[in-house]
Amino acid sequence: MSAHANLERRRQAIYGWLLLTPALVLLSVFAFYPTMSTLWSSLFSRGTRRNPVEYIGTGNYTELFADPTFWIVVKNNLLYAGVTIPVSMAIALAMALWANGKISARGFVRTAYFTPTVLPMIAAANLWLFFYTPGLGVLDQIGSVFGLPSINWLGQPETALWAIIIVTIWKEAGFFMIFYLAALQTIPEDLKEAADIEGTSRWTYTRRIVLPLLMPTTIFIAINALINSVKLIDHLFILTKGGPSDASKLLLYYIWEMAFAFFDAPQAAAMTILVIGVLAIVAAAKFLYLDKRTHYQ
Question: How many folded domains does the chain comprise?
Answer without folding.
Answer: 1
